[in-house]
Amino acid sequence: MPEILRIKQLSAGYGPLRVLHEIDFTVSEGERIGLVGLNGHGKTTLIRAITHMTGWQQGSIKLDGEEIGGTRSLGAGRRTAALVKKGIAVAPQGDAIFPGLSVRKHLECGAHTKLAWRNRRRRIDEILQIFPPLRSLQHNLVGKLSGGERRMVSVGRMLMSDARLYLIDEPSLGLAPKISQRVMDALWALPVTGAMIIAEQNVSLLSGRADRILGMHAGRMRGDIGHVELN
Amino acid sequence: MDLGLIIYALNLASIYALMAIGISILWSSVGMINMAHGATFATSGYAAWFVSGALKPAIAATFGKTVMASVMMASVVMLSAVLAGAFCGAVIYALAFLPIHDKPNYSVRSLIITLALNIGVVQSLLWYFGPRNRGLPKVFGFGRWELLDTKIRYDQAGTIVGASLVMILTLAWLRYSRRGLEVRAMMQNAEGAAYSGISRQATALPVLMLTGALAGVAAALLSQTIFVSPTAGVIPLVKGLTIALLGGLGSVSGAVAAAILIGFLEAIVGVIPFLGQRYVMFATFSFIILVLIFRPRGIGGLLDNTRE
Known about the structure:
The structure holds two protein chains of two kinds.
Chain A: E1 3-14, E2 17-28, E3 32-36, H1 43-50, E4 56-63, E5 66-67, H2 80-86, E6 88-91, H3 103-109, H4 114-118, H5 120-130, H6 147-159, E7 165-169, H7 177-189, E8 195-200, E9 212-217, E10 220-224
Parallel strand pairs in A: 3-8, 3-9, 6-7, 7-8
Antiparallel strand pairs in A: 1-2, 1-4, 4-5, 9-10
Helix pairs in contact in A: 3-6
Chain B: H1 3-30, H2 37-63, H3 67-97, H4 106-129, E1 144-147, E2 150-153, H5 154-176, H6 178-188, H7 190-195, H8 200-222, H9 234-247, H10 252-271, H11 280-294, H12 300-303
Helix pairs in contact in B: 1-5, 1-6, 1-8, 1-9, 1-10, 2-3, 2-4, 2-8, 2-9, 3-4, 3-8, 5-6, 5-8, 9-10, 9-11, 10-11
């Protein structure tokens, strides 16, 4: 299987504070990887570093064999849009929604490639199939939706373009168990061409489904922890 | 309130709204307080004056004294002002956005650069054209209608209709075009926009050119009532900026509402016997300060849901 993402010796953080220490891992085509760890152990920072939302001090990140952004990043999202165009799709923590757009318009925003824009109507219909609760809300403003519905919109927007790498940050955070189960089910039902990394605290949602479950502890990668309950 | 006063208020409001929505859109999508908006206004006025002056003999020779000649002249005035405004926007993009947009403190730096640009351009205009006021050819012709015992001048009616039309077109562009969708996404959540592949660099140029063109329209329309001069942009800039603040920076409908409010306030204060024209500025700013004390985010939040 060809490699999609290769991270080598990555150290990243906020200003002088170093959060990630010498992270090493690779993701191959077709893999769905769970990234688990307690709060504050670097899951979100890793995802933000891959998308250049957080600066990194040293290391390298390669997408499809191509170095993205050299060994040092300025951070703060200046190159994020360019990376998204290269094939990274993100459903960030906090959802980063556009409160004044309708659900349909919001989903349209995710269709940034030419192909996706041309097929946007069909794709929106597909996403409404995946998340049936959104169907009756498609002309409502996203700012007026509940937390679970927003998460669905955010994940839906991520799915609008054909990315190589899908990054989902804590899909179950702040959601009722039933709804987070539905979001997870939808993620696993998707026909993904590239690879997917799901950062999640709740291992039970990933267990038995993810191809690999990587543990993070205190900003270091603990490797594949297998399908066991994390205490 | 008589009709004349309403027309006068709407006339002011349409000019202010054109300036204010430009400043508002620019701030929320590109993150720039454009102090060079006044320079864009003045430059567009001069461009319209210069081009229409240069083409006047040619138009007179081709069309003589027909209606076609005035139509051509009007189009030349409007078109050159709009193009000059858009060009100024592109220059601001090149000087005050591109070199610094990825540096820390970008908002403050761009404010300082655009302020410097504003001063530089105004002084250059003063140096090149001199302080004399210039009159633009009448876009809407001379004359007036009688309506309910009130005289409405063509230029007043034209300004109100023209500005409304331009604003409707701008809002339609924001609402229905793909680029407009990107700009709105950027206005509402810059991080979400980045995750949707929308970069600030790519939206900044069209937004700066659009807001420049809006200032150009405002300049051409206002010059129908008053003159073109190097410092003509100062008052529209200050009014546009404060009205954008009053409307809640980033809210287009808020800016339009605030412009109408201020237009009427100015018109009414101007005719109150013991206040009169010299208290107009005082009344406007007192009103804006009062509103901002009680609603620091302006009146925009009442009107739309662009921000949470």
